[in-house]
Write a structure and sequence with these properties.
424 residues; alpha+beta; six-stranded antiparallel beta sheet; two-stranded antiparallel ribbon; 8 strands
Amino acid sequence: MRIKAFIALTPVFAGVLLMAACGTESPVDVKAVMAQPKTFVGSDTCKTCHLEHYDSWKMTLHSRMTQDARKNRDVIITDFNEEKIRDDLAKLGDKLKVPADQIYIPKTEEIRYTIGSQWKQRYIVEKDGTLYISPVQYNHETDRWVNYHEADWDQRPWLLKCGGCHATGVDLENQKFVEPAVGCEACHGKGSWHTALPKTAVFEKRQTIVNPAKLTMGVAVEICGSCHNRGKALQHEGAGWPVGYEPGKALERFYRSTSFAAGDAKHLYGNEFSKAHHQQYIDWKQSKHFYEGVTCTSCHFVHQIGVPPTRSQTYAAGSKQCFDCHVQVNTNMAHSIHSFANCVGCHMPRIVKSAESGDLHSHVFKPLLPAETLRDPAMPNSCQTCHKHKNEDLNQLQAQWEALSKIPKPLGKPIEPISYQPAK
């Protein structure tokens, strides 16, 4: 009887042993792993454990920042019709530094990578072993071609000027990169230690990767500021991105933002508001949000499960996002002008250019009054970015604002003093 029972249970024991063997991780020398230099491994490695986060990241513009046109020609969002391109360029007239018929236009087969896809698209080509951004740009929403550094495009190596914010794991010394996208490691840091350590090394594994959600807010926001910024590198001459910076470090050691005061009238208005794209960090540092600790991820998510509600990856659409924190308590004074609560329309005017002027919002979160434009005609204002007031007289608009934004002095008869009447 005992022999029969033993024979019956033998397959069960074998199955348990097999499962235990399959679930056992091979021994890893933790100290040896962490003694090696940290390296980039690419987002495809991260997805083996973090598939849901990888899938959500793939739905963002970060994952499509730079795309390989040799692997997939469909990443090119328009046709390269040379006649149309030159016709569009010719319309620019005196804005061109090189005649339209002499600007280099790449053939489709020459395009190595594309940059962007939503507002505009630029095209990376190779010349003498170095990657450059070609001197033509396609503006998606207006379906037109414009120039881009047509006079010196082949003197501006892409990896040096822009690569660190268009790709992940850029190595300037060897002129290469790991991943043509803003990948996982752009925000979480190099992942070689993290992927090499077993899950059983719980505490060591956690310490080998950066989780921005667990950093202090001031340090975490600098990860965004390392690319949503404009200026110059401090530790690598000629670079347009913070060479040497890694998530969790202090950005100011590696990068200095540009400013109007420092002479940059091309990218900023006279009041230091941004007029050019990828400068949200510069704007935000001037805002009340900065002083109150409201950061990028207070409004935007980097990746989340499901379909994003907006193309800007905000938690809610339009001014609904604002009402998560701000409660409208009145519709008088300034808010009597637009009582339908269009916070974004006034506080985030469209004065920034990515492809076309006004296709991006200011991130200073401050209304610009007509008086700003009266003082400086180059400075736009919130009122005239709206189609209703686009062509209205500035002085009249300012006068209307001042009349509505003041509380009138109370009028009436003063209350007469009441004499005291003792009780009888």
